[in-house]
Amino acid sequence: MPKHKDDPPKDRDVDFDELLPYVGEFGTYQKILFCLMIPFAFYVAWVYFSQIFITLVPEEHWCKVPELMDMSVDRRIALSIPPETHGMMEGRAKCLMYDVNYTDVRERDLQVADPDWPTKPCDNGWEFNYTVIPYATVATELEWVCDNAALPTFAQSIFFVGAIFGGLIFGWVADRYGRIPALIGTNLVGFLSGVATIFAGNFWEFAVCRFFFGFAFDNCFTMMYILVLEYVGPKWRTFVANMSIALFFTFAACLLPWIAYYLADWRLTCVVTSVPLVLAVATPWFVPESARWLVSQGQVDKAVLILHKFERINKTKVPDQVFKDFRDTCARIQKEEEVDKSYSVIDLFRSPRLRKITILLVLIWMAISLVFDGHVRNVDNLRLDVFVTFTVAAATELPADTFLTLVLDRWGRRWLACGSMVISGIFSVWASLVSNNIYSATLAIMGRFCVNISYNIGLQYAAELLPTVVRAQGVAFIHIMGYVASIIAPFIVYLGFFSNVLPLLVLGILGVIGGVLALFLPETLDKELPQTLQDGENFGKDQGIWDMPCFTKKADDAECPTSNFRRSSTVRSSRRASIRGETLRSSMIQRSSIRSRRSVVAPPLEEERL
Ligand SMILES: *[C@@H]1O[C@H](CO)[C@@H](O)[C@H](O)[C@H]1NC(C)=O
Ligand SMILES: CC(=O)N[C@H]1CO[C@H](CO)[C@@H](O)[C@@H]1O
């Protein structure tokens, strides 16, 4: 980082992060960009969660009997619906009705049915109790209940399949044509398919719309997130990275159930949550293209032009020498990257330890994705008001993020990943065993809180363990495996159909298994990141399974909590900034890893140490 603005040293490396302090780390333009993240945070929250609210099915539904429709609902039920026990609770059948001639029944003026009458499945559709969920959804209109109760689950999985395709396609667009076209494209697809959803007249039409809606999921926010983080100076990056998600995303997620509740119309909800995406077409006028991407395309002049715009708006002045050094550095980095391009994911599986690490990372990340997604979707099974539960659960994301920012660089990744997953597992299992609804929902939400912490650790951990030369591809690979796991999540939630206990029990067990697996990974806190495949192979060989960063360190290095925290938090935030969402765009991660590699071994660190 430059120390003397007026006296830039000659012929030194100036990479993007070192240039930023000259244009202002968090100046007026960056603040504007930070605010421009708000709509995109809303988009992703809505793209991710809105399907929950347009496929809700009221717990209480029963067969419709056209002949009795003019009677009061209680009498109608008494006459046509047989009793049924659901687990412990006395209830009435959801999928069966008495098989009698109802015109006859009316004439005999009966008040209640005879339990000995034969029964049959509903053959005239269903009625729903709209007290708790006060609106019809696509699932109630198309009667996705009883034999068809799994259809919303399938639709959700199809959404994730779409997310995989969308991630790959727009990742390619982002590399080829730039971040802004990808950002606009992904949001437009979301807008069109979101609006198209309201015309769906059967399951397959709905599923196709969901598939394309899923395209938007991976990039509609992260592309913007990455763009903005790139332009924010390293000192402010942690703040921007965490606050944008903690505040905007959480707020949008908390707001969503109430939008659905007050609109009380699934089509309107769909429109209101997908039409705003079209605003993304305005981004070229407000948001600059990624300078890093321009540089990687050899368009350094354009990148410099953008930086001049920052100078103007922030009212700063960058010495010409700095720009010159920057150009030189760009040229050199580009050459370095050419070399890295000859490796692929396969290389991760060639040597034994690296193979073990990679497989563990994949399994752990799959467990995390599965458990997290399962929890998100399980709100419906918690037997409480789904709107309130969802809001409370979404609100846990704020403390989870804050907590993580505070401890991740003190306690290390390994124990924190293990701890948060195991504790999440314990909460979930516990929640599945208690019968009190409120108590159980609270525990389930605690479980979700913990797994959200693991989720955040997960990808970063992967990025740190994989050697630089294949880091980008490796992280992308793991990320995709996470989506594959998410495809299964809705089915675990669907187990609730058989027994309310099952989903949480399964999620809990998976959490504990994932957590224990994390212990077999090496710790990365305060370690130099592996660069070559050989580094990756040897990484952590000296560590025992019970090692803990702070306790073992303190003896020989008393400054463990303070200065290391400061240093690695910049390293972390810069890396995380580029990795968190944009995992499929390899070139960028590669660049950011070069950047962080340098900041780990670079002089500033030594100064701090000595
Ligand atoms: C619908 O649900 C509400 C609230 O749970 C309940 O009070 C009401 O009796 C139910 N109506 C029918 C017809 O079951
Ligand atoms: C604190 C934390 O990890 N929050 C995350 C919870 O999950 C959502 C959805 O994936 C993330 O966007 C949050 O960052």
Folded structure, characterized:
It is a multi-pass membrane protein. Residues 95-526 form the Major facilitator superfamily (MFS) profile domain. Helix content is 67%, strand content 3%. The protein has 610 residues and is mainly α. It has 3 domains: 1-39 and 144-241 and 264-340, Up-down Bundle (Growth Hormone, Chain: A), CATH 1.20.1250; 61-128, no CATH class; 345-594, Up-down Bundle (Growth Hormone, Chain: A). Helix 2 packs parallel to helix 10 (234-263) and helix 10 (234-263) packs antiparallel against helix 17 (386-395). It starts with 15 loop residues before the first helix and ends with a helix. Bound molecules: 2-acetamido-2-deoxy-beta-D-glucopyranose (2 copies).
Any chance you could write out the topology, listing elements then pairs?
Elements: H1 16-23, H2 28-54, E1 61-63, H3 73-80, E2 83-86, E3 89-92, E4 96-98, H4 102-107, E5 119-121, E6 126-128, H5 138-141, H6 151-177, H7 179-197, H8 203-217, H9 222-231, H10 234-263, H11 266-274, H12 283-286, H13 291-296, H14 300-314, H15 320-340, H16 352-378, H17 386-395, H18 397-411, H19 413-433, H20 437-465, H21 468-494, H22 502-518, H23 533-538, H24 549-554, H25 563-579, H26 586-601, H27 603-609
Antiparallel strand pairs: 1-6, 2-3, 4-5
Helix pairs in contact: 2-9, 2-10, 2-11, 6-7, 6-8, 6-21, 7-8, 7-11, 9-25, 10-11, 10-17, 10-18, 10-25, 16-20, 16-21, 16-22, 18-20, 19-20, 19-22, 20-21, 21-26, 25-26
Bound molecules: 2-acetamido-2-deoxy-beta-D-glucopyranose (NAG) (2 copies).
